[in-house]
Design goal:
By secondary structure, the protein is of the alpha/beta class. It contains 17 helices and seven strands. The strands form two sheets. The chain has a four-stranded mixed sheet with strand order 4-5-6-7, sandwiched between helices. A three-stranded parallel sheet has the order 2-1-3. Helix 1 packs parallel to helix 2, helix 3 runs parallel beside helix 4 and helix 10 runs antiparallel to helix 13. It binds guanosine-5'-triphosphate and magnesium ion.
Length: 359
């Protein structure tokens, strides 16, 4: 295991051992980090927690580091063979920067052990730094794979793509937590989804542009914000426009899963598509006069509308209440001067968006 200081080598050594054990292997762990006082003790604690074999060795006496590193590695290999283990995982010392001493040590370990894998452990949170150091290590040692740790943090995993690109070596696992089992084989498709976590805004914008009647939308906004308010008829028009975009679920799914839209995709599962149909049916059951002036819709008219639309008087009441609230809200926004901004920024942004994001 190779990597910079604190990248997660020791933790990951344990995770890998646990993963191998689960797959029926017999791994053995050894730490050759003889520089940091508690480093070897740390691996011992890890090994114990997952009930994995560990070659402890004896750090006292001759020779001193760096020859001690080689002695421990050679002893561990012998021990692993004697114990019938099929994998030896060597946890190495980290350094703040890549220096000659470290590289020399890694090279001599490679010569001594002729390892099947040299895995570079990189902290996903460090982004470009991880990419640069991966390349340095690869040039000197010839990595066979990469393990990205701390993918449970805020890191979006963009480093994964770059590391893969500059080293040409596959990302084999990702670490997703501090516990020994917070470790999983790497799936490129999932990381792409995560990096793109932005959903498919472009598709949504394109769809809106090609489906929605822009003139109608602007007329509606003008009326609702600046004019006498919008009627139930206008409301129905808007509903049918939204419906043209597809199911609410499919629309919400195209929104980013991060930022202000976080949680919307989840919410999309709770959207009652039938609600739209119901609203339309209710408005359709009104007379044109009623649609233009909702104030005349008395109790007996409500009963008639409910019967005509196959809904209940409560449904009709609710629609009228919601409509009145919306109309009021739009009017207030219009008075606030926000309207002109919305007209320019909000609706206009649909068109401008395409140029800005480009395809
Ligand atoms: N959240 C999270 N923390 C991790 C992960 N992997 C390692 N860590 C934490 O990162 C810190 C450093 O991990 P170590 O395994 O000690 O790192 P190291 O590379 O061995 O460090 P040195 O031996 O000092 O070079 C510890 O606090 C770990 O618990 C991970 O996948 N997710
Ligand atoms: Mg360590």
């Amino acid at each position: 295991m190779a990597g910079l200081q604190g990248s997660g080598k020791t933790t990951t050594s344990g995770k890998l051992a646990a993963w191998l054990k689960k797959g029926g292997h017999r791994p053995m762990l050894v730490s050759v980090d003889v520089y940091r006082p508690a480093a070897r003790e740390q691996l011992k604690v890890v090994a114990k927690s997952i009930d994995a074999r560990l070659y402890e060795g004896d750090q006292k006496g001759e020779p001193a580091a760096p020859a001690l590193v080689e002695r421990l590695a050679a002893e561990a290999r012998r021990e692993a063979r004697n114990m019938g283990c099929d994998t030896l995982i060597v946890d190495t010392a980290g350094r703040l920067h890549i220096d000659e001493d470290l590289m020399g040590e890694m090279e001599s370990l490679k010569k001594l052990l002729n390892p099947q894998e040299i895995l570079f452990v990189a902290d996903a949170m460090t982004g470009q730094d991880a990419v640069n150091s991966a390349l340095d290590f690869h040039k000197r040692l010839g990595l066979t794979g990469v393990i990205l740790t701390k993918m449970d943090g805020d890191a979006r995993g963009g480093a994964a793509i770059s590391i893969r690109h500059v080293t040409g070596q596959p990302i084999k696992f990702i670490g997703v937590g501090e516990k020994p089992d917070a470790f999983e084989p790497f799936h490129p498709d999932r990381i792409v989804g995560r990096i793109l976590g932005m959903g498919d805004m472009l598709s949504l914008i394109e769809k809106a542009e090609s489906t929605l009647d822009r003139k109608k939308s602007e007329e509606f906004a003008k009326k609702a914000l600046l004019g006498d308010g919008f009627s139930l008829e206008d409301f129905r028009d808007q509903l049918s426009q939204i419906k043209k975009l597809g199911s609410m679920e499919s629309i919400l799914k195209m929104l980013p899963s991060v930022g202000p839209f976080a949680g919307m995709q989840q919410a999309s599962k709770n959207v009652d598509e039938k609600q739209f149909v119901r609203l339309e049916a209710i408005i359709n059951s009104m007379t044109p006069k009623e649609r233009r002036n909702h104030e005349i819709i008395s109790g007996s008219r409500r009963k008639r509308i409910a019967a005509g639309s196959g809904t209940t008087v409560q449904d009709v009441n609710m629609l009228l209440r919601q409509y009145a609230q919306m109309a009021k809200m739009f009017k207030q926004m219009g008075k606030g001067g926000l309207a002109r901004n919305m007209m320019r920024g909000g609706l206009g942004a649909l068109g401008a968006g395409k140029q800005r994001f480009g395809r």
